[in-house]
Amino acid sequence: MERRKTLFRDLFAGKPLERLPIDVRVTVPSPYPVQEQFRNGDKQLEAALANAVASWEHAPSSDGIPGMRPDVGCSCLASAFGAEYFWSDNPNQTPGVRNKTLSLDSLAEQVGGLAVPDPLQAGWLPEGLRRIRLFAEAGEGFVPVALLDAAGGVNVAADLLGMTELMTAFYEQPRALHALLEKIQTLYAATIRAGIEAAGGEANITTTDFEDVWYPEGWKGHVSDDISAGFGPDIYAEFSAPYHARIFHEFGAGGLHNCGPNPCHAAYVAHPVSPRSLDLSDPYSHADLPKFKQSLRGKAFVYLFYGGGPKPVDWYREIMELMAPDVIVVPVIHVGPKDAEPLCRELQTIATEYARRMEWGWIPAGI
Q1: pLDDT tens-digit profile of 81-138?
Q2: What does the mean pLDDT of the chain come to?
Q3: Residue 59: CB partners within 8 Å, gap ≥ 6?
Q4: What is the DSSP letter of 84?
Q5: What is d(CA 288, CA 319) in angstroms, rounded to the nearest whole number?
Q6: Residue 114, exposed/middle/buried by CB under 10 A (0-12, 13-18, 19+)?
Q7: At CB < 8 A and 24+ separation, what contacts does 305-311 make?
Q8: Among 55, 63, 281, 45, which Cα is nearest to 146's?
Q9: Model pTM above 0.90
Q10: What is the DSSP letter of 202?
């Protein structure tokens, strides 16, 4: 455990490494569909703990630190503001929001009368906090837990307003939208603090968000912004970055998630308080890697989640050839028990070569 943590501490600090980290995890089939796990915290814990234990047992050479993710849906903050969950007929579909709760007509007045909810009482948040406590107790201080999938302020605003209305508000009602984002952000920060308390302290969490990748001390702050795939860097700079910076300022500028694509790639690291890492989904972000090679150089590295296609070893070697010596990419790959350890050894050979090719060191954020 300490070997793995030291490797990531040094990576975040910008120290030259002899080998870059590789994160290979073992996934074992769960008897429970996704919706059944979302509705039943005990079954969700059973599945998460099985994967964490299997990863330790079958991938001892991996550098990843297996964590667990207590999850009540990425619209949990919206539910606290009164949004009702919608469950589809697909048992493996996560919940969404049934109806919007705000409208563009008199938006400023609606937001002005909107109280900031108590995360201990509102929507799905109490259940989420209960699960954090449940998962942390099961992890016994050894298996860290993620906090809730908060989605990010603009995503929550989209749940409450609707996507078309949100896009209109960017241009026609920016003041009202900022007022809404202020209240969402206040709830978000309060939910993080409550989540840390439920987990028994920062030492027991992976990050302040849903990601079950372990972030070092001082770098626990993590935010999500999947919706930024649908707008440009000017919108991101005004309506996303300043609010993300508040989380980074309080909890550390650890990471930002967007599955992809990434039209705001340069804006991710343009703010004076910007994330040290991005976590991206390869199927949606692979085409953006040449852009990241320029925009992230000396500023941030990437956790890239493998999504199938080429063999993992060929995929990682291709990435090294593209991104070295400018940007580090840490592969995160889920496989079955039999494939994990052989894959680790093959990836480590590439990761050693990758480290030799890198130009090390971080430049100040916002430059």
Answers
A1: 999 999 999 999 999 999 999 999 999 999 999 999 999 999 999 999 999 999 999 9
A2: 97
A3: 24, 25, 26, 340, 341, 344
A4: P
A5: 12
A6: middle
A7: 305/279, 305/280, 305/281, 305/332, 305/333, 306/282, 306/331, 306/332, 306/333, 306/334, 307/281, 307/282, 307/283, 308/283, 309/283
A8: 45
A9: yes
A10: G
